[in-house]
Amino acid sequence: MGDKFMGYQRKDGSVGVRNQIAIIPSVFCSSKVAERIAYQVPGSVYFRHPVGCSQVGEDLEVTAKTLIQIGKNPNFAGVVVVGLGCERFSPYELAQGIAPTNKMLETVVIQEEGDSLAAIQQGVKYARAMQQIASRQQREEADVSELVIGLNCGGSDMTSGLIANPALGIASDKLVAQGGSSILSEITELIGTEEILARRAINETVAEEIRQTVYQTEQKLERQTAASSNKNRTHLISKGNYDGGLSSVVEKSLGSMKKSGNAPFSGVIQYGHRLTSKGLYLLDSPGHDGEVTTGEVAAGAQIIVFPTGRGTPTGFPGVPVIKITGNPRTYEKMKENIDINVGQVMTGEKTMQQMGEEIYREILEVASGKLAKAEILGHDEQFCITRLP
Amino acid sequence: MSDLKLVVDNRQKAALVIDAKDNVAVALEDLKKGETCLIRFEDLVEQLEVMEDIAFGHKIALKDLQQDECVYKYGEEIGRMKEPLQKGGWIHSHNMYCERGLKNG
After folding, report:
1. How far is residue B84's CA from residue B96's CA, in Å, rounded to a whole number?
2. pLDDT band at residue A227 using 50, 70 and 90 as cut-offs
3. Is the CB of A352 less than 8 angstroms away from the CB of B42?
């Protein structure tokens, strides 16, 4: 019998750790209307973004898929899609994409309602009705194997790779060992570890996917830096990294990779796709904090665990972001932003194993309703869909 | 490593081992040549004499290393030694190389 948490059962079989109403604009033009709707309905969140029109090809597809998957995330009991009416990514297509979850779902289109005031009014009516229904739903016991956590580190310092990431890896391994899921990403921060990652793949097909994912990211970086006079791969590691004690790109990237512990990789997922089975996965995304966590929430993560050495306050709409730091001084300074002080390993008060278990317990508590500090303070900066060139 | 419980004297300078397979530890503060520092791995500790100044965040050798010997951190190879190094010495880009990241792209 695995560990349990108290979550919200959804009709599609998934389990939410929050019970919010998502107000999702299909295009940037309807962002303000979405925001105004959310402001008038407690327990709802909105997803501001600058895209949804004047995009073509794979770039538009990734935006479309990501918005659909955000709506499908089990943390949301209902969704109000807000469209303008003439955008390239139709609000009806967005709603249709979310519909298979059978969650509460309505669409408001500004050009059909008449004006933005009318659209806000209609959206508020929909969201309030959903909120009233959602408010009656109780948490029920769920198996920990229903949990998906997204891993991302940002504002890193030397304590991140040394302590916070390996401690998080222990927690991630514990979740995966009990049938849960965990998502590693930030491919730009994994360059040099592709063979080590590939060795952890469940089979050779996955191993090759991992190698190709890292290789293509490195190729892209090299194209972007081709104009620079220094064509040496050592540009992957900075002078600051060397000064801080890192001697190779492999050493640097291992510090990032260790967030995923030692569990086997079950597969690679593309941006905007949802996990179809359980286990540890690699998400193909560049290292931008928001792009990574947005991709992870789209993949089904109900919780993000976020190591930060220097300290960053950011959060995600409707998804708890648990902040951990390996730097005791950062914890003292940013106690209101950071949930766990893993820096107790630095000071010798705790071992890495003990901190890993503490992170795991915190994940279960937050999954059961304990608010993460980023949620309490209303931080929601991380929603940010990746763009393709 | 000696099976001592976590140390009483937290004032002593320490270096941290991340994985049981590692042959380096990471200095948790600036270490000076001639000092004895505490090497910690989980709840195991041992004393090690520091053979040269090693800055916070940098690596100290836990055993004598031969030329071309693998350097292990996180239980993985992060590079190899350009030259031999004695236990307690400083490992960095001056005496460690890594094929990955050095060759031209």
Report:
1. 10
2. low
3. yes
Region A35-47 average pLDDT: 97
Alpha-carbon span A13 to A241, nearest angstrom? 45
Say yes or no for a CB contact (<8 Å) between B93 and A242.
yes
Residue with tokens 């989980």: B42
Nearest-CB residue to B74 (from A244, A258, A347): A258
Q: How far apart are CA A101 and CA A271, in angstroms?
A: 20
Rounded Cα distance between A27 and A256, Å, is 34
Query: What would the pLDDT profile of A274-291 be if each residue is shown by its tens digit?
Result: 999 999 999 999 889 999
Q: Which chain A residue has its CA at the smallest distance from B17's CA?
A: A162
- Indicate the helix (H) or strand (E) that contains A122: helix A116-134
- How long is chain A? 389
* CA separation for the pair A61, A78 (Å, rounded): 23
Reported ipTM: the value is 0.89
pLDDT digit string (tens) for A4-30? 999 999 999 999 999 999 999 999 999
pTM for the structure as a whole: 0.94
Measured distance CA(A82)–CA(A339) in Å, rounded: 34
Between CA A339 and CA A360 the distance in angstroms is: 13
DSSP string, chain B: -B-PPSPS-TTS-EEE--STT-SEEEESS-B-TT-EEEEEETTEEEEEE--S-B-TT-EEESS-B-TTPEEEETTEEEEEESS-B-TT-EESTTTEE-STTTSB-
State the pLDDT at residue A250.
94
